[in-house]
Design goal:
With 479 residues, this protein is mainly alpha-helical. It is built from 18 helices and no strands.
Length: 479
């Protein structure tokens, strides 16, 4: 296989022996399971599907399919970068390698801020849903704030033990939630079998036609956030150049099929009644209640399991990007500290969860957890989507610069440009003028984060002009 520019190889060998994570401890199944767990299908579907139905009507499954195709385009970009230069830095390394050290610093700040803001929604809803379950089934009232803190500390204690045990736990939690979801979905189809038909896949049943699909499309795309999880685990995988690509596409396929099945079962469970669907706060749970009260409990447990698996997997992957950025000097070096035994980035994990919990407390303390979940997740997603967009634009530049002999017009130009369009549209929908409060403030906050990142980048790059040489210097499978 062709290799990248000689200077990059030299940098990798020169820097590669210091601050390394545990090598080769993860398999294809491990990183795929971690990615699936991070997408958290129960959590994402529970709190996102009603809004998709509001936009698209009972043909909402078509919107989910469109979202899966868009994410597949983004998956091509991540896979092509990882085949050439697998790195714990993920998008930070990929964008920085294409556009230079300054862009890497900016990307590190924007992406890590977006991830921390987004996971604050998971921290909040973990306590919120647990509080609801305890109150409803055991008549015990424990404030969600306390539960969220305990669950965050529990996740930290687990992932510090190492990549292997924590990904195993996430895999078990993912499998358990999927089993529960499928049980409820099948029960819905059996109970409402008279309404099993092809309407949810008929474009003529899209609310307001193509415009309904367009309105629901951004929300469908964001059901898949977390699909990129495997790239940051590359250094601990035994064959990252091929393994990351397999994990990305298999995860998107598995969750895409699951979402389509769940969305179809939910529409059937509401007897094709779009109005009733949109009036339900969590449609899947409401539909389960029409069959048997025990199914509601099963659905709640699936949701809670999903949230816990997401908290573990998101921290495991996304905090590694903070670690790698500290290791390369893009962020404060303290974030690059590892445990002696497990070689896990404990400082990066701690910073990530502490900031997420702090955001949850400061901005969500007096807000309903479900409401706050949707609001702050949207804010974080804007910054994450900006990074997705930049990565798609970076892929052609990178391959022209370092892999010209392997450059493919389809894989390295057409598909990433389609990916840029696929993420550019939902990003525009999130930031365009006329958003309701508090969403109308989010574009300004995002702009403020970007400006802050540009300033920090100028300071960091001004102090050390060699930053560009260190970006991507530690290749996942290099000795």
């Amino acid at each position: 296989m062709a290799t990248v520019d000689t200077s990059l190889q030299q940098r990798g060998s020169r820097e590669g022996g210091e601050g390394r994570l545990a090598r080769g401890v993860l398999s294809d199944v491990d990183i795929a399971a971690a990615t699936l767990a991070d997408m958290a299908p129960a959590m994402s579907f529970f709190f996102g599907f009603a809004t998709i139905v509001t936009a698209a009507g009972i043909a909402a499954p078509l919107t989910v399919i469109a979202g899966a195709i868009a994410i597949g385009l983004l998956g091509n970009t991540l896979s092509q970068f990882s085949r050439s230069r697998p790195s714990t830095g993920s998008f930070v390394t990929f964008i920085g390698s294409a556009f230079g050290g300054y862009s890497a610093v900016v990307t590190a700040v924007v992406l890590c801020t977006g991830y921390i803001i987004a996971v604050a929604s998971v921290v909040t809803i973990s306590g919120g849903l647990a509080e609801t379950i305890l109150k409803q089934y055991l008549s015990i009232t424990i404030p969600w704030q306390a539960i969220s803190a305990v669950l965050s500390l529990g996740a930290l204690a687990l992932i510090v033990t190492g990549a292997k045990p924590s990904t195993k736990v996430a895999a078990v939690l993912f499998a358990f939630q999927v089993l529960l979801l499928i049980v409820v979905a099948i029960a819905l189809l059996i109970e409402h079998s008279a309404y099993i038909n092809g309407k949810p896949f008929d474009p003529s049943h899209l609310h307001r036609g193509f415009s309904g699909l367009s309105l629901g499309f951004p929300l469908a795309v964001y059901l898949f956030v977390g699909w990129e999880n495997s790239a940051a685990l590359a250094e601990e995988h035994h064959n990252p150049r091929a393994g990351v690509a397999r994990a990305v596409f298999s995860s998107i396929l598995v969750v895409g099929v699951l979402y389509v099945f769940l969305s179809y079962a939910t529409v059937v469970g509401f007897n094709d009644n779009a109005a009733a669907l949109t009036n339900a706060q969590i449609p899947f749970i409401t539909a389960a209640g029409t069959v048997a009260s025990g199914l509601v409990f099963i659905a709640y447990i699936a949701g809670f399991t999903s949230i816990c698996s997401c908290l573990i997997s998101a921290t495991n992957s996304q905090a590694r990007i903070i670690f790698n950025s500290g290791r390369e000097g893009l962020l404060p070096s303290v974030t690059a500290r590892l445990t002696e035994r497990g070689k896990t980035p404990w400082v990066a994990f701690s910073v990530y969860l502490a900031l997420a919990l702090g955001l949850s407390y400061v901005f969500g303390w007096n807000t309903d957890p479900v409401t706050f979940f949707g609001e702050i997740a949207t804010m974080g997603t804007i910054l994450i989507a900006l990074t997705y967009l930049a990565a798609n634009l970076a892929l052609p530049v990178y391959y022209r610069r370092y892999e010209q002999e392997r450059f493919s017009n389809v894989k390295h130009l057409v598909l990433p440009l389609l990916g840029a369009a696929a993420i550019g549209y939902p990003l525009y929908e999130l930031i365009k003028p006329g958003q309701p409060a508090p969403f109308d403030r989010y574009p300004l906050i995002a702009a403020g984060v970007v400006v802050g990142a540009l300033i920090w980048g100028a300071i960091a790059f001004g102090r050390d002009r060699t930053l560009g040489e260190r970006v991507g210097s530690i290749v996942a499978d290099a000795d």
